[in-house]
Structure formats: structure tokens, C-alpha cells
Specification:
The protein is an alpha+beta fold. It has helices at residues 18-45, 77-91, 93-107, 116-145, 153-184, 204-220, 258-261, 289-294, 322-328, 356-360, and strands spanning 275-278, 284-287, 298-302, 315-321, 338-342, 351-354, 365-370, 373-374, 384-386, 399-404. Strand 5 (338-342) and strand 6 form a beta hairpin. Helix 1 (18-45) packs antiparallel against helix 2 and helix 2 (77-91) crosses helix 6 (204-220). The N and C termini lie far apart (70 Å). The model has no long low-confidence stretch (mean pLDDT 89). InterPro entries: OxRdtase_Mopterin-bd_dom, OxRdtase_Mopterin-bd_sf.
């Protein structure tokens, strides 16, 4: 007689059981909680409550109540939170897949609901499985393929995260007490245990070591993207792994090249480019690169950190403070928010907004030089924004216009 997936005898792996599933579940309980928190923090770093230009999820409603003004210190904050978010997400993939494999018989169990509690558990399980796969797949594709979902990844990942985490919390409330008891048990029993198991080829603990080894391998081939030097070359699965793209002061990692952004070199030439600075009551100043270089210049040691999880170490930037540019157009005290516009023609965040606290920070610059040399075209020549703790896309390159007090 043929069995079906709804029959317990269809599933014969001797590895499945409450202990194996519970260990994986408790690991995910911690890991996914950290993922969710760092994801929300990353979303706040874009300041979506500041300006529609930065907000890729305009209909978030009550889900945006937690948003706050992103700080500028410590200067490595976004580098840490987004690096943890992406690296941990990749590292947890084997654990998630093993957990889904361990509970797959329950997806086919009949009847669909034996009680209200069981029905809630089944619904949370379906949302958990679907939401988990959606979040991990879209996140990995976006990291690997660099803006695979332009204009749509942000809302998809944001809403998906809330659906997934709501199901995750409901499932955890129902299952964590039992999971803790199962881990403490010395004997396996329950509906996940195969009634007619096949001969074992590996122990459950051996299977856990295998899953852990897979996670360790993914960690080792991803985490290096957040470091310079030899460690970056270990990031084989990261888009910005490998050696620095060039030699010299401008040789560190980039995201969008000048060619990709559609920058016309004729309009960035020193005799053609002018920065337009607009401020109080429409007061406007136009400055060439030579004129900017004659203003008081300051240095800041700041990294570049991007949503894909990669980052650089601190680079030495030199340029004009944003708050000094605000003073030129009438904001001598308490500089306001600023709208930054770029010459770029392709890619997201051609326009971006920065909060007043970011403008006021003395380390926030309109940079003209990096590591003692003029910016290269790929790093934003003739001028770029650099702000402590801000996501890379808000450190706008090829700046053409700054409008203070209007976002």
C-alpha cells in the first residue's frame, strides 16, 4: 500500500525528532530576533520619516511608529548594524533550511486543525515558512545582485519582515516552552519521530555539527566583506569580496561607478562644474571646486558602509563642513535639514535628504579629497558628501546642489 506525505510512515529519516527540531528552533529564536532588530535599525538609518526622497515604503503606516532620528555617533554604527544583519542572515541559511526540513511532515499532517491552538500553530507555521523563505531569498538576491528590485525591494523586504516576525513571535510563544523541555529530554518521542525509521547513517548531534559547519563556512566566506586587506579576499560569496579594486588612495571599494551612474566627464570638469548652495529666503551661492578648496577645510576619518553589508575601514576625508556651507546661505546657527542632489542619471538615491543633526556634526563634510588625494571619478569627483554613521547611499557622490531648509 502506497503512503502519502500525510501519513507518518511516509517520512522515514531517523534524524527527525523534537530534540533536533528544538535545538535548531532555539538557535533561530536568537538569530532571527537579532536579524529583525538590526533590519529595523537599518531602515531607520535611511531616515524615511524625514523626506519622501529617502522613504521607499511610503505606506508603512503604524509600522513606522518606531522610527527615530538616526544618530551620527558612534561613526561606525551603521557599519556594525548592517554588517551584522547581512552576515548573520547568510550564516543562518543552513539552520533555517535544516529547521524547515525537520518539520516538513507537519505541513502535510491531517486533519489541518484539531483545535483552536493547533489551528493557530498551523497558520503561524505556514506564515513562518513562507515569510522566512521570502525574506532570506529576497535578501540574498539583493545582496548578491545589487539592487535586483529597484524601487520595490525596500517595501517588499519591510512588509515581509513584519509578517514573518509576527508569525515567528506567535510560533515562539506556542512552542518555546516545549522546545526547552525537548532539549532537556534524553529520549526522543513525539509526532516528528518516524514510526518506521531507516537505518541511521549519522547521529542527530552529527547532523547538528554538519549544519553548524555549513553556517561556519558561509560566515567565513561572507564576513570578510566588512574588513580591508587579506580578510576581504575570504568573502567569496559577497559582491565586494576580493582585493581592493585599484591601487593608491582611491583604491578602496565602491558601489556605483561613474560610468554606471551616467556621469558625463565634461560636466565634472573643473571649468564647468559648479556647486549650487541654496538657503534662507532663496539665498544662493555658486562655488567651483577651486573656490571650495579655498574655504576652511577639515578632515574626518570615516568608513563607507552599504546596505549590502560590505564596508571599508576608516578613510581620511578632507573637505568643507556641511554646517559651514549652511552658514554661507544664512544658517549661521542651528543648520537645518538639507536636500542633496547628484549629477548621476542612473541608480537609486539621486536625491537624498540629511537631518539637521547630521548637517551640524563637525565630521560631516562635502569632501574634495580622500587619503591625501583628489577624489577619483568613481568616488564622486568633484565633490561628495560624507557623514558619520550614515548608509553609503546617503553619502551622495557627484554632488551638484545643496538646498538647506527644504526637504
Amino acid at each position: 500500500m502506497r503512503t502519502t506525505p500525510a501519513s507518518p510512515s511516509f517520512w522515514r529519516s531517523p534524524l527527525r525528532g523534537p530534540w533536533f527540531t528544538s535545538v535548531l528552533g532555539l538557535v533561530l529564536l536568537v538569530g532571527i530576533t537579532v536579524l529583525f532588530v538590526t533590519g529595523l535599525v537599518s531602515y531607520a538609518a535611511y531616515n524615511p520619516g524625514l523626506s519622501p526622497l529617502n522613504d521607499k515604503t511610503p505606506d508603512k503606516g503604524v509600522l513606522g511608529l518606531y522610527l527615530f532620528a538616526w544618530p551620527t555617533g558612534p561613526h561606525w554604527l551603521y557599519r556594525l548594524t548592517q554588517g551584522v544583519h547581512v552576515t548573520l542572515g547568510v550564516t543562518l541559511i543552513p539552520v533555517l533550511l535544516a529547521k524547515l526540513w525537520s518539520v516538513v511532515p507537519k505541513l502535510f499532517a491531517l486533519p489541518p486543525a484539531r483545535s483552536l491552538t493547533h489551528a493557530l500553530e498551523r497558520v503561524s507555521l505556514l506564515l513562518l515558512v513562507g515569510g522566512g523563505l521570502f525574506e532570506f531569498v529576497t535578501g540574498v538576491l539583493n545582496v548578491q545582485l545589487d539592487y535586483l528590485f529597484p524601487g520595490s525591494f525596500y517595501p517588499l523586504h519591510f512588509y515581509g519582515a513584519w509578517v514573518f516576525f509576527a508569525a515567528f513571535v506567535a510560533h515562539a510563544v506556542l512552542k518555546v516552552p516545549a522546545a526547552v523541555r525537548n532539549v532537556r529530554k534524553a529520549r526522543e518521542e513525539g509526532e516528528l519521530v518516524a514510526p518506521r525509521p531507516e537505518p541511521p547513517t549519522v547521529s542527530r548531534r552529527g547532523a547538528l555539527w554538519f549544519v553548524g559547519g555549513g553556517s561556519l563556512l558561509l560566515f567565513a566566506t561572507t564576513a570578510g566583506q566588512s574588513f580591508d586587506g587579506p580578510l576581504r579576499r575570504t568573502a567569496l560569496l559577497a559582491p565586494h569580496g576580493g582585493a581592493d579594486p585599484a591601487q593608491g588612495p582611491n583604491g578602496f571599494q565602491i558601489n556605483k561607478t561613474a560610468a554606471y551612474a551616467g556621469i558625463d566627464h565634461a560636466e565634472t570638469a573643473e571649468d564647468a562644474w559648479r556647486l549650487v548652495v541654496v538657503g534662507r529666503s532663496g539665498r544662493t551661492v555658486r562655488l567651483g571646486r577651486t573656490e571650495l578648496a579655498q574655504l576652511p577645510l577639515y578632515s574626518s576619518a570615516l568608513p563607507i558602509a552599504c546596505v549590502e553589508g560590505w564596508s571599508t575601514s576608516d578613510q581620511s576625508w578632507r573637505g568643507v563642513r556641511l554646517r559651514d556651507l549652511a552658514a554661507l546661505v544664512g544658517y549661521d546657527v542651528d543648520p537645518p535639514d538639507v536636500l542633496v542632489e547628484s549629477l548621476q542619471r542612473r541608480g537609486a538615491f539621486r536625491h537624498a535628504a540629511l537631518r539637521a543633526n547630521q548637517v551640524a556634526d563637525p565630521r560631516s563634510l562635502l569632501a574634495l579629497y580622500v587619503n591625501g588625494e583628489a577624489l577619483s571619478p568613481d568616488h564622486g569627483y568633484p565633490a561628495r558628501v560624507i557623514v558619520p554613521a550614515a548608509p553609503g547611499v546617503l553619502n551622495t557622490k557627484w554632488v551638484a546642489r545643496l538646498t538647506f531648509g527644504k526637504v
